[in-house]
Amino acid sequence: MKSRHRRPSVVPARADRLWRWPLAVAVVIFAVSGPLHAMGWTDLVYYASLGGLTLGGLAVPVGLLGLRRRR
Q1: Using CA atoms, how far apart are residues 32 and 21, in angstroms rounded to an integer?
Q2: How confident is the model at residue 1, as a pLDDT?
Q3: From first to last of its 71 residues, what are the pLDDT tens digits of the chain?
Q4: Residue 36 buriedness (CB in 10 A; 0-12 / 13-18 / 19+)
Q5: What is the rounded CA–CA span in Å between residue 66 and residue 62?
Q6: Are 69 and 12 in contact (CB under 8 A)?
């Protein structure tokens, strides 16, 4: 039995809006890594890839939390 006085959580609604930004930044980082690698900046590509993987790893659980939002 559900409580009538319980407020719906705003966390899933915010997560539904927020998961796209880290994923979009990760995509841009990976797209820029190709030309940087071709120019010989392999150290920068390495650290950029780590940052992109971190952002992608952050976007996935936030997106899954956003799936709990009732439409």
Answers
A1: 17
A2: 60
A3: 666 766 767 888 888 888 999 999 999 999 999 999 999 999 999 999 999 999 999 999 999 988 887 66
A4: middle
A5: 6
A6: yes
Cβ contact 21:66 at 8 Å: no
Q: Are 51 and 28 in contact (CB under 8 A)?
A: no
Phi-psi category of residue 70: left, alpha or beta, with phi > 0 → left and psi -120 to 50 → alpha: beta
Contacts of 16 (CB under 8 A, 6+ apart): 63, 66, 67, 69
Nearest to 53 by CA among 31, 27, 15: 27
**Which residues make Cβ contacts (< 8 Å) with residue 62, sequence separation at least 6?**
15, 18, 19, 22
Length of the chain: 71
